[in-house]
Amino acid sequence: MKPFEYNRANDLDHAARLTSDGARPIAGGTNLLDLMKLEIETPDALVDINRVPLGGIEPDGDELRIGALVTNSACAADERIRRDYPVLARAILAGATFQLRNKATTAGNLCQRTRCYYFYNTEMPCNKREPGSGCSAIGGFNRIHAVLGASDACIATYPGDMAVALCALNATVEIATAEGHTRSVPVRAFHRLPDDAPERDNVLEPGEVITAVVLPAPPGGKHVYRKVRDRSSYAFALVSIAAVVRMDGGAIASAALAFGGLAHKPWHDERVDALLVGEVPSDALFDKAADLLLDGAQGHGTNDFKIPMARRTLKAVLREVTGDAE
Amino acid sequence: MALIINGREYAFEGDPRTTLLDFLRRDCDLTGTKKGCDHGQCGACTVLVNGQRINSCLTLAVMHDGESVTTIEGLGTIDDLHPLQAAFVKHDGYQCGYCTPGQICSAKAMLEEAANNWPSFVSENLSGETRLTPDEIRERMSGNLCRCGAYSNIVDAIVEVMEREQ
């Protein structure tokens, strides 16, 4: 690990001053420290924000505000999350292990980096790790890579589960800017596609600190998080789907779907949601939804299987979420 | 700054790069906690911080100023084994034993999480009481690898302690 300067912040102003000077915030550290050991991340300074008061899950009107430092364990165990936003609890529990979730935080989880093999292999070119060096996954082993929204510079995927559920729920990320203001970004717009700047995973600007994630009023309906992976526990998604669907008199009254494992960001396609609303569930309808989702999907060799897998998973999730069975 | 480890205060002054795991093993001479992968994948380094199980390889000692750490040395002694230690011996919950301190620390915290009704990925119902079936135990212990493959005996050992506690 490269040497770094360590400072602990006790309040947000202190943290913001240090991040404005280039320090990287560290909370749980489960991803950042791993990457620092491998010298993929080499920050000159860390600011430990664990003692900044950014914890707690508090209602704000109909909304529910999850502090940036709330651990994944605490979030998934919270009674309100389990009752009103079960898709979020399910998605969190589908990721990592109890040990990691006890450290991993809400904000840190959003900012976790790709698990692309070549991003981790400092012997190989990677535009995300070293801009301009090339992409080894294109033409290489790309079993876990993107089939939607990739670019010639990068075909990495966003690896997380929690953010996929937050996308389906249309949650908002609350951010403290370096100038001391607050701005809000929908989770759906927080992560970026790689384009020609894959080194930027999300829209956070230098010096900014995530302060909370805000869930809108409970959406009701049926919630499903389905994750397809190589082993049944402690593995990243090949394909995952978060679905929140409300039925009314045999037709779909509202639908919000988000997809993991397919792209550089949790994938949300409002055309898919819109197609389903007002319709009576049928396999033909679900096929149409998959056609729309996967229009333009492109495999890169070893990840070609993800395209039919995404279709099958979507159909299975839609059958489950629109069915009568509890 | 100092950490409270197994009830005793240990001063920390040194390179901020020191992980909690390296601090325990190298500076405190508490070598019961094992270094396996050093990347949070195997669970051999599992300890309890403020009662919660974490991977001690993926956190810095400097981040735990004033916090309470429990390692395998803090659970039992050779003359007075912790019930989980005794059950692992009885059920042969290991072969080489390298993962065992992590397994036992992890199992201790797992029983408390379940008592607090924390759900897991395999819980059918997100509300209500947690019943630790063997499937639940396997899912909740999936952060602790055993390369010898003693998993079935590990589950048996945990089940015995759980049933005795109920």
TrEMBL record, chain A:
It comes from the Bacteria. Residues 1-220 form the FAD-binding PCMH-type domain. PROSITE patterns: FAD_PCMH (PS51387). It holds the Pfam family CO_deh_flav_C. One of its GO terms (molecular function) is oxidoreductase activity. Keywords: FAD, Flavoprotein. This is Periplasmic aromatic aldehyde oxidoreductase, FAD binding subunit YagS.
Automatic annotation (TrEMBL), chain B:
PANTHER family: OXIDOREDUCTASE, IRON-SULPHUR BINDING SUBUNIT-RELATED-RELATED. Pfam families: Fer2, Fer2_2. InterPro entries: 2Fe-2S-bd, 2Fe-2S-bd_dom_sf, 2Fe-2S_ferredoxin-like_sf, 2Fe-2S_ferredoxin-type, 2Fe2S_fd_BS, Aldehyde_Oxdr_Iron-Sulfur, Beta-grasp_dom_sf. It comes from the Bacteria. This is Periplasmic aromatic aldehyde oxidoreductase, iron-sulfur subunit YagT. Signal peptide: none annotated. PROSITE patterns: 2FE2S_FER_1, 2FE2S_FER_2. Keywords: 2Fe-2S, Iron, Iron-sulfur, Metal-binding, Oxidoreductase. Transmembrane segments: none annotated. The keyword rRNA-binding does not apply. GO terms for molecular function: 2 iron, 2 sulfur cluster binding; metal ion binding; oxidoreductase activity, acting on the aldehyde or oxo group of donors. Residues 1-75 form the 2Fe-2S ferredoxin-type domain.
